[in-house]
Amino acid sequence: MAAVYAQAVQTLIDELGRLPGIGPKSAQRITFHLLKLPTEDAERLANAIITAKARVRFCEQCFNVSEDELCSICADPRRDQTVLCVVEEARDIIAVERTGEFRGRYHVLMGAISPIDGVGPEQLKIRELLRRLGSDTVQEIILCTNPNVEGEATAMYLARLIKPLGLTVSRIASGLPVGGDLEYADELTLGRALEGRRIVD
Amino acid sequence: MSLYRDSGVVLRTYKLGESDRIVVILTLGHGKIRAVAKGVRKTKSRFGGRLEPLSNVSLLVYEGRELDTISQVETIDSLGPLYGDLDRLTQGLSLLEVVDRITPDREPVPHLHRMLVGALRSLESRPLPLVVPAFFWKLLAAEGVRPELDVCVRCGEADNLIAFDMNEGGVLCRTCRTGTPISAEALRLTRMILGGGMNAALDEPVTPATAEVRHLATEAMEHHLERRLRSVALYERL
Known about the structure:
The complex is a heterodimer of chains A (201) and B (238). With 201 residues, chain A is an alpha/beta fold. Helix content of chain A is 44%, strand content 10%. Chain A folds into 2 domains: 7-55, Helicase, Ruva Protein, domain 3, CATH 1.10.8.420; 78-171, 3-Layer(aba) Sandwich (Dna Topoisomerase Vi A Subunit, Chain: A, domain 2), CATH 3.40.1360.10. Chain A is built from 8 helices and 6 strands, in the order αααββαβαβαβαβα. The radius of gyration of chain A is 22 Å and the shape is globular. In chain A, 23% of the residues are buried. Chain B folds into 2 domains: 3-78, CATH 2.40.50.140; 81-235, Recombination protein O, C-terminal domain (de novo design (two linked rop proteins), Up-down Bundle), CATH 1.20.1440.120. The A-B interface holds A 21, 113, 115-118, 120, 148-149, 152-153, 156-157, 160, 177, 179-180, 184-189, 191 and B 12, 17-18, 43-44, 46-50, 52-54, 75, 78-80, 83-86, 89-90, 93-94, 96-97, 100, 230-231, 233-235, 238.
């Protein structure tokens, strides 16, 4: 088929089409929306992408996304230096931060052990985690990986590695979501919720 | 488009879009299927927890053109015991990897399904070191590449069998020897596994021969699949 659109339009459609969750049709829709926008609005978007790409990198200590050498959490002296929360991805930090329950610092593994996909402990930031434990004032590690097979394997692997260092190693609880129905809870979740029950006072 | 019931073991999952997953399941009646489980990555999902790899579930599935859609799930065997133990978990995952590689899509293989469920159940109830190697050998035999263990594959000699060669597909005697050496004890265990004495072989005390049988089984499986098994590398390192 001959090219229907001008070259510049086609390039934009192709580039947008490579974004996650955007198919050729949505790419086309967004392209035409962008073309209708005032020039300054489109430039603002373009600049936002360029600035983010240029400025954002990984925190040297915890591998969170950051604009400086250390991310805002690692650089904050008011944060509890004794507790470290280990998460899979940087976006998990945002989820934990939203709870407002945690005042310690983080460590991002950048993935989880998944033998079937060929991701082993070497591909994760585990060596860096151990180095932090060696020099830091950390006393407790909270394993905050996803409660699925990969996350669970990662948590158990880390526990086995860290326990001998004499630190407290804890795993986040799993149980029923607030607003959920007991009737529809699966056996494993409900079983774990019972196992991790607490005394009401 | 129709609705069907089946039972199966979840082999692996892929993320799909924002909150869905594609689940690969070895079912009893429909072979290996790929099905979409909608919304399972959300915390309020009604069946997300049942569709983790290793779980044996009973399913209600909408048949689609390429991907099916899962509509209901009930647990048959919970993977609870495997979930809390790193060694058993990685052993279970290595069974899944092999089965996923070996089975074709949408072709019923009830004997494989039965073997997998059996092996996972024994990992749960009696996590013995020979469960995975025994499964590998049995699977190879079911695939039609059962090794020759009784006589030398080259000259037919029945004594002094001291080597095992993957390319030859069996054991070799002292004069014809090529491949890896095999001890008399490891040979005895492998014969037991393939000769109908699997349960007795599993109950044998752990000796250096156990590790030998394990290596040999992994090597034979990798030779057959013509690729490295990633999950085995992980559990052998632990």
